[in-house]
Amino acid sequence: MKFYEKILLSGIILTVVSCSSYKPISDSEREKIISELSYIRNIDQEYASLPPKEMMEKYGEKNAWKVFETKRDSVGKDNQSRIKRLYAQYGYLGFKQVGEANATKFWISIQHADDDVGFQRTMLKAMKKKSVRRMPIKMNMRCLKTGLLSIQVKSKDSGLR
Q: Which stretches of the chain score pLDDT less than 70?
Protein backbone atom coordinates (compact mmCIF):
# COMPACT_ATOMS: atom_id res chain seq x y z
CA MET A 1 0.00 0.00 0.00
CA LYS A 2 1.36 3.37 -0.97
CA PHE A 3 1.88 6.22 1.47
CA TYR A 4 -1.03 8.36 0.24
CA GLU A 5 -3.35 5.32 0.29
CA LYS A 6 -2.40 4.74 3.94
CA ILE A 7 -3.17 8.38 4.73
CA LEU A 8 -6.52 8.18 2.92
CA LEU A 9 -7.42 4.92 4.66
CA SER A 10 -6.40 6.36 8.05
CA GLY A 11 -8.54 9.44 7.41
CA ILE A 12 -11.57 7.32 6.54
CA ILE A 13 -11.12 5.13 9.62
CA LEU A 14 -10.66 8.18 11.84
CA THR A 15 -13.82 9.76 10.43
CA VAL A 16 -15.87 6.61 10.97
CA VAL A 17 -14.55 6.09 14.52
CA SER A 18 -14.99 9.72 15.55
CA CYS A 19 -18.54 10.01 14.26
CA SER A 20 -21.18 9.46 16.89
CA SER A 21 -23.24 6.30 16.68
CA TYR A 22 -26.15 8.05 18.39
CA LYS A 23 -29.03 9.33 16.34
CA PRO A 24 -29.70 13.08 16.16
CA ILE A 25 -32.17 14.40 18.71
CA SER A 26 -35.42 15.78 17.31
CA ASP A 27 -37.05 18.88 18.82
CA SER A 28 -39.80 16.81 20.46
CA GLU A 29 -37.23 14.39 21.92
CA ARG A 30 -35.15 17.32 23.16
CA GLU A 31 -38.18 18.71 25.00
CA LYS A 32 -38.82 15.31 26.65
CA ILE A 33 -35.14 15.01 27.59
CA ILE A 34 -35.07 18.52 29.05
CA SER A 35 -38.23 17.79 31.04
CA GLU A 36 -36.66 14.62 32.44
CA LEU A 37 -33.40 16.43 33.22
CA SER A 38 -35.36 19.12 35.07
CA TYR A 39 -37.14 16.45 37.12
CA ILE A 40 -33.80 14.75 37.90
CA ARG A 41 -32.20 18.00 39.01
CA ASN A 42 -35.16 19.17 41.09
CA ILE A 43 -35.58 15.90 43.00
CA ASP A 44 -31.80 15.64 43.43
CA GLN A 45 -31.64 19.10 44.99
CA GLU A 46 -34.66 18.38 47.19
CA TYR A 47 -32.67 15.58 48.84
CA ALA A 48 -29.21 17.15 48.64
CA SER A 49 -29.18 18.91 51.99
CA LEU A 50 -31.25 18.60 55.19
CA PRO A 51 -34.60 16.95 55.89
CA PRO A 52 -37.42 19.45 55.40
CA LYS A 53 -39.06 21.00 58.47
CA GLU A 54 -42.31 19.11 57.79
CA MET A 55 -40.47 15.78 57.85
CA MET A 56 -38.75 16.69 61.13
CA GLU A 57 -42.10 17.58 62.68
CA LYS A 58 -43.81 14.44 61.38
CA TYR A 59 -41.14 11.87 62.33
CA GLY A 60 -39.00 13.60 64.96
CA GLU A 61 -35.36 14.46 64.36
CA LYS A 62 -33.83 10.97 64.66
CA ASN A 63 -36.44 9.17 62.57
CA ALA A 64 -36.68 12.03 60.08
CA TRP A 65 -32.99 11.57 59.25
CA LYS A 66 -33.49 7.84 58.69
CA VAL A 67 -36.49 8.46 56.43
CA PHE A 68 -34.67 11.27 54.63
CA GLU A 69 -31.51 9.21 54.00
CA THR A 70 -33.53 6.24 52.74
CA LYS A 71 -35.46 8.48 50.37
CA ARG A 72 -32.26 10.28 49.29
CA ASP A 73 -30.60 6.94 48.45
CA SER A 74 -33.69 5.83 46.53
CA VAL A 75 -33.82 9.12 44.61
CA GLY A 76 -30.10 8.82 43.80
CA LYS A 77 -30.49 5.30 42.41
CA ASP A 78 -33.55 6.30 40.39
CA ASN A 79 -31.73 9.33 38.97
CA GLN A 80 -28.72 7.18 38.05
CA SER A 81 -31.02 4.77 36.27
CA ARG A 82 -32.61 7.63 34.34
CA ILE A 83 -29.21 9.09 33.40
CA LYS A 84 -27.91 5.67 32.30
CA ARG A 85 -30.98 5.20 30.10
CA LEU A 86 -30.55 8.65 28.55
CA TYR A 87 -26.85 8.00 27.98
CA ALA A 88 -27.54 4.61 26.37
CA GLN A 89 -30.06 6.21 24.04
CA TYR A 90 -28.41 9.56 23.21
CA GLY A 91 -24.81 9.45 24.42
CA TYR A 92 -23.39 12.11 26.72
CA LEU A 93 -25.85 15.01 26.72
CA GLY A 94 -23.63 18.05 26.41
CA PHE A 95 -24.13 21.69 25.46
CA LYS A 96 -24.72 20.92 21.80
CA GLN A 97 -27.53 18.44 22.47
CA VAL A 98 -29.43 20.12 25.33
CA GLY A 99 -27.79 23.49 26.08
CA GLU A 100 -25.48 24.47 28.92
CA ALA A 101 -28.04 24.58 31.76
CA ASN A 102 -29.50 21.20 30.86
CA ALA A 103 -26.07 19.62 30.36
CA THR A 104 -25.37 20.64 33.97
CA LYS A 105 -28.62 18.93 35.02
CA PHE A 106 -27.41 15.77 33.26
CA TRP A 107 -24.08 15.96 35.03
CA ILE A 108 -25.40 16.43 38.57
CA SER A 109 -26.52 12.80 38.97
CA ILE A 110 -23.19 11.63 37.63
CA GLN A 111 -21.46 13.72 40.30
CA HIS A 112 -23.66 12.21 43.03
CA ALA A 113 -23.22 8.57 41.89
CA ASP A 114 -20.46 7.79 44.41
CA ASP A 115 -21.83 4.28 44.91
CA ASP A 116 -21.26 3.46 41.21
CA VAL A 117 -17.64 4.31 40.46
CA GLY A 118 -17.71 2.33 37.20
CA PHE A 119 -20.54 4.52 35.96
CA GLN A 120 -18.63 7.65 36.96
CA ARG A 121 -15.54 6.44 35.09
CA THR A 122 -17.60 5.72 31.98
CA MET A 123 -19.07 9.21 32.15
CA LEU A 124 -15.63 10.73 32.70
CA LYS A 125 -14.43 9.10 29.46
CA ALA A 126 -17.51 10.41 27.64
CA MET A 127 -16.93 13.89 29.11
CA LYS A 128 -13.35 13.90 27.87
CA LYS A 129 -14.63 13.47 24.32
CA LYS A 130 -16.93 16.49 24.77
CA SER A 131 -14.46 18.73 26.59
CA VAL A 132 -12.55 20.33 23.74
CA ARG A 133 -12.28 24.01 24.75
CA ARG A 134 -15.35 23.79 27.01
CA MET A 135 -14.33 25.19 30.38
CA PRO A 136 -17.52 24.21 32.28
CA ILE A 137 -17.15 20.58 31.22
CA LYS A 138 -13.48 20.62 32.15
CA MET A 139 -14.41 21.96 35.61
CA ASN A 140 -17.00 19.16 35.99
CA MET A 141 -14.35 16.64 34.91
CA ARG A 142 -11.93 17.93 37.56
CA CYS A 143 -14.65 17.68 40.19
CA LEU A 144 -15.50 14.11 39.14
CA LYS A 145 -11.81 13.10 39.07
CA THR A 146 -11.39 14.51 42.59
CA GLY A 147 -14.43 12.55 43.77
CA LEU A 148 -13.13 9.33 42.24
CA LEU A 149 -9.72 9.88 43.82
CA SER A 150 -11.39 10.47 47.18
CA ILE A 151 -13.33 7.21 46.84
CA GLN A 152 -10.11 5.35 45.99
CA VAL A 153 -8.35 6.79 49.03
CA LYS A 154 -11.27 5.88 51.32
CA SER A 155 -11.30 2.34 49.87
CA LYS A 156 -7.58 1.91 50.54
CA ASP A 157 -7.94 3.32 54.08
CA SER A 158 -10.74 0.90 54.91
CA GLY A 159 -8.93 -2.08 53.36
CA LEU A 160 -11.40 -2.37 50.47
CA ARG A 161 -10.47 -2.58 46.80
A: 1-23, 130-145, 147-161
